[in-house]
Amino acid sequence: MESATERDYANLTESLAARSVDVEAVEGRLRSQRIETPSWGYGNSGTRFKIFPQPGVPRDPFEKISDAAEVHRLTGICPSVAIHIPWDRVDDYGQLKEHASSLGMEIGAVNPNLFQEKEYSLGTVCNPDPAVRRKATEHIIECIEIGGEVGSDVLSLWFADGTNYAGQDSFVERRSRMYECLSEAYAAMPNSMRMLLEYKPFEPAFYHTDLPDWGAALTMCQRLGERAQVLVDLGHHLQGTNIEHVVALILDEGRLGGFHFNNRKYADDDLIVGSVNPFELFLIYVKLVEAEEGGARIDYMIDQAHNIEPKMEAMILSVMNLQEAYAKALLVDRGALNEARHSGEVLGAHRTLIDAYSTDVRPLCAKAREDMGAVADPIGAFEQSGYAEKAARERAEGAGAGWN
Ligand code: RM4
Ligand code: MN
Ligand code: MN
Q1: What is the pLDDT of residue 396?
Q2: Is the beta carbon of 27 within 6 A of some atom in ligand 1?
Q3: What single DSSP character describes residue 166?
Q4: Which of 115, 120, 197, 198 to mutate to test ligand 1, by most ligand atoms within 8 A of the CB atom?
Q5: CA–CA separation, 339 vs 350, rounded Å?
Q6: This prediction's pTM
Q7: CA distance 331 to 29
Q8: Whose CA is nearest to atom 7 of ligand 1?
Q9: Angstrom distance (rounded) from CA 56 to CA 345
């Protein structure tokens, strides 16, 4: 560690100790944090209007995993990568798994792609045509099998299903079609696998979405069975929704299975997590810290599209923002918070959160990263590593890694 960093760390830990924070315990929790990065975050992506290719992006799923491994090497907490099928289709999934483990990585959630086939214009598992529902269900089952081959126990589902015009189709019939297809998929899962259901209120359908919100997702999970759980994507709420409250409610029902971290200003913007509203991210982590203490298993994943910014630095920054949000949430004085709540001290309770949120935890995160064998300054280290230049030389402009 450089001396400035060391000094910052010493000052911080001294003031934390004065606040009766168990610094060692906090550092231990920071080392145990896990964030899965998405294969599609490393490939070219764009808006509805244009995909801007970047030099050096991966040409195939193997290279996406290599990029994810580099993010893990620098941050220390990202040992798994989510895949999207068919974007990450390969002939031999065993070989993909081998490649991952040779880099110290695992393959995480398998995401069936249910929004890019020409038959899917009226939906997939909710489509009025049984043949299309069959095709979609088969694809989900194929992804369950791929999960077996790559050693993953998470099937992560997001449906673009919905309608654009009032009267276009029956809400209730569509829901029962979804249930029928998903219960077939659920039955095809091995006992070790969980099914995550992600909701979203709009886009690409604009009149109604078949799983618009946490209530629709939760009740579908409850019908399907215990291993069906809700996935919260931070870009999938209407403006003004209190996401930390939603998180608390799903947790209270014991059904929070996963997260897609990103950030948004207006819609499903898929911007760098913590870049627009870091306070909201902190408040969400305040709930997650409690849930972890209660033994909940939640898969923390990033779901972002880096359209104009360099992708690897963007992913590294996202992970660092998640480390900092988690660290701040770990600093909340739970005893003082409870006391203030129970004695009706409105501002006392609020200020307990603000005290934690206002702490500069960067030296603590840097130390935790170093202790894990990662680095204090991941972005600086990445820039100096020459990785990006080498990738640009070897891979040139990359290839269709998803949207293009
Ligand atoms: C969706 C949703 C899914 C993601 C796709 C690419 O809006 O967030 O999780 O797989 O985008
Ligand atoms: Mn998502
Ligand atoms: Mn999304």
Answers
A1: 82
A2: no
A3: T
A4: 198
A5: 12
A6: 0.97
A7: 11
A8: 268
A9: 55
Query: Alpha-carbon distance 227 to 221, whole Å?
Result: 8
Tens of pLDDT, residue by residue over 286-341, are 999 999 998 889 999 999 999 999 999 999 999 999 999 999 999 999 999 999 99
The Cα–Cα gap between 157 and 172 comes to: 20
> Is the model's pLDDT at 4 over the cut of 80?
no
> How far is residue 82's CA from residue 98's CA, in Å, rounded to a whole number?
15
298, 365, 373: which is closest to 328 by C-alpha? 365
Number of other residues whose CB lies within 10 A of the CB of residue 259: 25
Distance CA 333, CA 280 (A): 18
Beta strands per DSSP E along 80-235? 80-85, 106-112, 154-158, 162-163, 194-198, 208-209, 228-233
Report CA(335)–ligand 2 centroid distance (Å).
35
CA distance 219 to 228: 10
**158 touches ligand 1 (CB under 6 Å):** yes
Q: Is the CB of 237 under 6 A from ligand 1?
A: no
Q: Tokens for 384?
A: 């100096």
The pLDDT value given to residue 68: 98
Residue having the nearest C-alpha atom to atom 2 of ligand 1: 158
